[in-house]
Amino acid sequence: MEEEELECPNSASEKRYFPESLDSSDGDEEGILACEDLELNPFDGLPYSSRYYKLLKEREDLPIWKEKYSFMENLLQNQIVIVSGDAKCGKSSQVPQWCAEYCLSIHYQHGGVVCTQVHKPTAVQLALRVADEMDVNIGHEVGYVIPFENCCTSETILRYCTDDMLQREMMSSPFLGSYGVIILDDVHERSMATDVLLGLLKDVLLARPELKLIINSSPHLISKLSSYYGNVPLIEVKKQHPVEVVHLSGAQTEPLESVLRLIFEIHQSGEKGDIVVFLACEQDIEKAYEIVCQEGSNLNPDLGELVVVPLYPEEKCALFKPSDETEKRCQVYQRRVVLTASSGESLIWSSSVKFVIDVGVERRKVYNPRIRANSLVTQPISQSQADMRKQILGSSSSGKLFCLYSEEFARKDMRPLKPAEMQEANLTSMVLFLKRIDIAGLGHCDFMNRPAPESLMQALEDLDYLAALDNDGNLSEFGIIMSEFPLDPQLSKSILASCEFDCVEEMLTIAAMVTAPSCFSNLPHGAEEAALTCWKTFLHPEGDHFTLINIYKAYQDVALNSTSEHCVEKWCHDYFLNCCALRMADIIRAELLEIVKRIELPCAEPAFGSKENALNIKKALLSGHFMQIARDVDGSGNYLMLTHKQVAQLHPLSGYSISKKMPEWVLFHKFSISENNYVRITSEISPELFMQLAPPYYFSNLPPSESKDILHQVMDHLSPLSTTKKEQKMCEKCPETTEQRCTIQ
Fold it and tell me: Hydrolase: present as a keyword of the record (predicted)?
């Protein structure tokens, strides 16, 4: 799904069709009588359309519908209600509608309804679907809010939003006074934002006795939730059809080969139904996609063509939308093969799925606070994830699940529950948010699973280095402004620094481009050379951050001078660029610029292209990313991190890799420990510039290394005045350790 392409429809264009008797009556008495007999929608006062009644019958067939009376009764009598149900039982679409009915019955005296989702595409799809079921207009009575897109008005009764957006709303409205009912959906996904909301809402519920909280979860987490929130009512939705499960234990040695063999065997069997395949990682998706497309063309045409639909992990999933040609093929031919990885369970909605293939392992990002980097770790999925994948077939009595692992493996090697993101991720942004909320008296957060103390201390230390905290461990003025930006704190700090260095426009472009998905298209086999030739036209000698500015400026020029959107898409296609990602970058940049204007930060005229501007951009980048520096230790492209002893190479798409020029010192945006230790989005910097801009107490805490010795020599050659000032600053910081100065309540 391309969330950046979705627009809030105009109410006039979305006007529902009225019965023919109304249109043809022309003031006739029969028409007036027919109008009086029509049932009116209480949410907008208009007559229900015929589609409403058709969808109502479908809703009444959902497993959760039988629990409506019980739910409404518990909602009236209790402040918290937990709803337990399998995937596709209807809890995500029906419970919010019932809550909207409750708010309507009390005339919205306490506010409307908000329902959180972990995934952006799910929030959008649910809003569209529920608006249709309620027979109202999307963007009016029902809307959605996702990062960098708001499709709601002040009159919206029911809004779907991502959990991180509701969390951000608490910064301006800590007690969420706009809502009478808050629904936390898919709590079993254990996203960091949902876990934080679970903790903070405990205090909000005490402050607002009239507020209702609904928690939707799969059955696996119910016992933990019950002990976390105490004795609260539980609505349990009965299980659906049993699913045939086939364990293929011998397939674990070569899972990709086994997956491909199964796909072709199912297709050649002639059994109807789409196939969903859960693979371990994005690389497996790409390999499977290429092979199935190649081999599929050689199969018996009487069986129909296999239409392969790759769903990439979360950062790329939002960009997926089948082309018009693919959609036509899906209607003509009989089988789709959906390739996905990790937690894509909640994104699979189609009732046409009859087969699921599960490899039983996933590649997860696990953050290591000691080295400030993610490690890509391949490990078994949890038992709850395995069960969720089975539930995709829950509405089909003839579905079949192929598990490429043994029952013993599931019992012994799989953890019961999916690990909480809070225990595996970088906590810097979360801690910044909690520090900001503490201003409103909500800093204490009772987590369902407490994060590791080491991760918390690393987050506090990073915020201290970024000058986001004062000497008492509270947010500084810098920290308060940084929290206004929906970005990584390091990027926020770079934007603030760009105000001092007169390069705000350029820094906003960089921030938008690195926040949006990659602007480079996934290349078809054999197109690599042509793509590199095109990309060379955008290369900037100062580094990849500058190349991204060139690409964005070229995209903007084409967009401004083109007569149609098709011309822009063609230009992107010709240059092997991702048009959807560039559109998203444009949206992100516009919102960041709006924030800069709202908080009245100084913004100089753009001067991209001059040497002084290039130096200023590097100064702004270094002000936020001084912890992400690496040095080429042998002159052959082996970069040693300044903060630890990991060695990495430049990514093949880096401008330096393409031009074969390897700078000695680089600032990088991303680094993950994996099979290929690549640093991504790099720009050359000088050690002198680093020593001028990195906090002295950060430099003093670096581990001993040859790189640190070189930097010491650089510091000795700097002017005595600047050295004295640095030593004074260092002395000011030395008496107190980070642990003493930074505490989290």
Answer: yes
